[in-house]
Batch of 2 targets.
Target 1
Amino acid sequence: MLRVLVTGGCGFIGSNLVRHLLAHYANVSVVNLDLLTYAGNMASLRDIWEDPRHQFIRGDITDRDLVRRIFAEGIDTVFHLAAETHVDRSIFDATPFVRTNVLGTQVLLDAAREFGVRRFLHVSTDEVYGSLGPTGAFTETTPLAPNSPYAASKAAADLLVRSYVHTFDLPAIITRCSNNYGPYQFPEKFIPLSITHLLEDRPVPLYGDGLQVRDWLHVQDHCAALVRIWEFGKPGEVYNIGGRCEKTNLEVAQFLCRELGKPTSLIRFVADRPGHDRRYAMDISKLERELGWRPTIPFEEGLRQTIRWYQEHQDWVHQVRSGEYQRFYDWQYRDRLATGRSAAAPVETPSA
Ligand code: NAD
Ligand code: DAU
């Protein structure tokens, strides 16, 4: 059995990735290290709680002792996703971004170096490249020019990873992906926020003129790219991942109104995000050419599926909104103590 560490496995992409790994690799067991910040949700993994190949550890990636204990038990590969991820929050307070995204990455890199891993996948973002004009796309050699505190913290982490490859021969790979959408995305992000608002006839806030462009990729395509890179990518390389699917925010909002049968008068132009990047677009030809990956889920189909998912999972949304989702950990833990379920159960605290 290969022991794979996924950091941030209770977040949006992390939960989809844990599910993908367990479904597609019978020889893999997943150690899921997640602090359960506001963005972490155990309910996003409800269907695999009982899977003995999933071990959940609530903990902080900046906790060096804890991280060392986890690595000491043997880790083949790290998929490092844990991060503070919302640009707007980073504008209000950059501190948790620097702490988790930079220091947390360094702690993981140190442990990976000390105990040895076969692969370290550092999951990064197109935002490290900055903003584009109306034409062109980011390649893996585009200079880093992050514009938000979030993007700057991710770029700093990328540079740390690069330095550990160069200095210590750490077999790490950096992936940089464009905007994801799909099930289990926290409803502060644009697409789930718009869907959940429209479902309740509430306005969709569109920043500035709404003509900013994002390159959208379904989260399942992102997960497929990550495992392809894990299996066939070259250590030390950077791989761009994207959807070849550029849309303005206004186009996305209009599409959602149409699909949900809501009037576009619910779209409200509001004050712009400070420093708002105008356009992202990814050149993904390296990943296509070298590893044979390409996006498979057409945007409109993926968005329709995503709308359906939010319609059918109103309980998940309500629990997030009410804050109830943050109590799942206590409920699970208490339940297990009360029923004396085994230590192999997915919810456990690490041994000292
Ligand atoms: P998310 O915000 O949904 O989830 C982040 C997870 O990390 C949460 O479960 C949270 O509890 C956990 N976490 C935060 N701080 C932690 C800490 N100190 N220790 C342990 N766990 C901690 O994020 P996401 O959208 O799923 O993004 C995952 C990764 O992918 C991030 O690294 C992000 O930069 C990158 N990424 C995201 C997108 C996107 O569109 N969402 C695109 C490209 C890259
Ligand atoms: O590009 C990858 C990045 O995509 C990831 O690295 C980030 O973690 C992820 O949060 C996302 O960043 P964005 O800032 O692009 O995503 P967000 O969903 O916040 O916003 C998408 C676009 O929609 C952006 O141009 C801002 C705009 N927006 C967003 C919100 C929340 C609005 O117009 N109104 C809104 O209410």
Note: The longest strand covers residues 28-34.
Target 2
Amino acid sequence: MTLDLFGDDCETNKELEALALGATLLRGLAAPQTAGLLLAIERVTERAPFRIMATRGGYRMSVAMTNCGAAGWVSDESGYRYDAVDPTTGQPWPPMPAAFLQLAAEAAERAGFGEFTPDACLLNRYEPGARLSLHQDKNERDMNAPIVSVSLGLPAVFLFGGARRAQRPRRVPLAHGDVVVWGGPARLFYHGVLALKDGEHRALGRSRVNLTFRRAL
Ligand code: SIN
Ligand code: FE2
């Protein structure tokens, strides 16, 4: 009987892995909700389709992106910024779906951060070969809020480094439903994604979709 009482806790601890002080991997946290998340992604991308953005200097990114919420992350030849308007449609970004808000709040809480109400969600779509080089998320106004990152579709290798770019990053394999949260002392840590390996995912085909929730404004 006593064992039963602790059953839930043991389950939770097994799925919670520290990557650094302030950074936590919540394995499979989003798995029970993936059907609702995929539906919400469809709704968002009907109004704000995935597109390839340019970087400062005019290079094409390999990851296709879009956003929902009050602010969206956009990049073009002049640099990157948060913008309330989707430059492709001239309309505000679609609102943040309730399923997104709920998952982001739950993940932040489980990782030990207080109340988290993101106002921006960047959706990244990786096709085989697409990658994201090491970078910091540093354009957000409120650095007290964590970043919550949700992986869907094909597995990927997430790189999680430290405060300096030169620090060799950890390689963290991420699968459909895994969630990573970083904040506090890890908030500005460098991170990236290795080139996506080809494969076929039952729900997302030859792709991986990642949602990153931020408090940007
Ligand atoms: C990001 O850093 O914006 C996305 C990370 C990921 O795709 O896992
Ligand atoms: Fe990032």
Note: The longest helix spans residues 34-47.
